[in-house]
UniProtKB/TrEMBL annotation:
Record InterPro entries: Aminotrans_IV, Aminotransferase-like, BCAT-like_C, BCAT-like_N, Class-IV_PLP-Dep_Aminotrnsfr
Protein name: D-amino acid aminotransferase
Organism, scientific name: Castellaniella hirudinis
Gene3D superfamilies associated with the record: 3.30.470.10, D-amino Acid Aminotransferase, subunit A, domain 2
Top-level taxon: Bacteria
Gene Ontology MF annotations: transaminase activity
Pfam family, one: Aminotran_4
Family: Belongs to the class-IV pyridoxal-phosphate-dependent aminotransferase family.
Length: 280
């Protein structure tokens, strides 16, 4: 497949970066993942705006405009044979002698992009739901940055895998944060709730999007801290991400969530999400 690296479109096997790249050495970079259906990007503007925010947060200057990023996404999609896919965008501070503080000499950031195949959620996951295990959120205090330093997220996902579960439900100081690579939502008495968008979670592009879908469907929404007890007593527990779209979690720590099957708020938002993809 074709990838983009520092100004060139190449075959994946031809793409090379320096071992001194600060992404490799320090995890000093940020990324984003834009889903595309039938090679049409979904919510691209929002994803690119988030990438720019992440870059600004860690003070990497690419000199790229929103239009330049859009051209890269479209350039990758135009060269791809995949229909449903993700466009992965990755920027590091570049290659420089190993020293923690930023390079004093100007360095070109490394800019990498690739297209990967995207399998939409399987029927079994959509219709029966997922399982999850809870754990303490042990990540850092800047989860709003879409950092390529993903060790905490990797270890969290492996905790789920080792437990035979699909995902983790993380709590920081007794309150819900997010999954290993997804946002989490609870439903109680028909009200949809999510944690506040602060530094403890990554603001998924589906966060504002689900708020829009909920408003259009007349489902009340509230952002506020959500306790462990509230998660335990929720009628529905949902996750959202670019690749998993929206899916229900029907068992948490071996116990059923609500009725133990996907609920009505999920069903409505799921149907609306599907309709939006079909209308692209
Ligand atoms: N939270 C984390 C930690 C993530 O890695 C992701 C990415 O998928 C999300 C939330 C959801 O974000 P999005 O809806 O933009 O995919």
């Amino acid at each position: 497949s074709v990838v983009y690296l520092n100004g060139e479109y190449l075959r994946l096997g031809e793409a090379r970066i320096s071992v001194l790249d600060r992404g490799f050495i320090f995890g000093d970079g940020v990324y984003d993942v834009v889903p595309a259906y039938g090679r049409k990007p979904f919510r691209m503007g929002e994803h690119l705006a988030r990438l720019q925010r992440s870059l600004k947060a860690i003070r990497i200057e690419t000199g790229w405009s929103a239009g330049d990023w859009e051209d890269l996404v479209q350039g990758l999609l135009a060269r791809s044979v995949l229909q449903d896919c993700t466009v992965y965008l990755h920027v590091t501070r570049g290659a420089a002698p190993r020293e923690h503080s930023f390079p004093t000499q100007p360095v070109q950031p490394t800019i990498f992009g690739m297209v990967s195949s995207l399998s939409r959620p399987a029927a079994v996951n959509r219709e029966r739901g997922l399982t999850a295990v809870s754990m303490d959120d042990e990540r850092w205090l800047h989860c709003e940055i879409k950092s390529i330093s993903l060790l905490g997220n990797v270890l969290a996902k492996q905790y789920a895998t080792d437990a035979g579960a699909d995902e983790v439900v993380q709590f920081r100081d007794g309150h819900l944060s997010e999954g290993s690579s997804c946002n989490l939502w609870v439903v109680k008495y028909g009200i949809l709730r999510a944690p506040v968008r602060d530094r403890m979670i990554l603001e998924g592009i589906r966060y504002a999007y689900l708020m829009e879908l909920a408003a259009a469907a007349g489902i009340p929404f509230e952002a506020r801290p959500i306790s462990r007890l509230e998660v335990g007593q929720a009628d529905e527990l949902l996750l959202t991400s670019a690749t998993r779209e929206i899916l229900p979690i029907i068992r948490l720590d071996g116990r059923p969530v609500g009725a133990g099957s996907p609920g009505p708020v999920y069903a409505r938002l799921r149907a609306d999400y599907d309709r939006a993809i079909a209308a692209l």
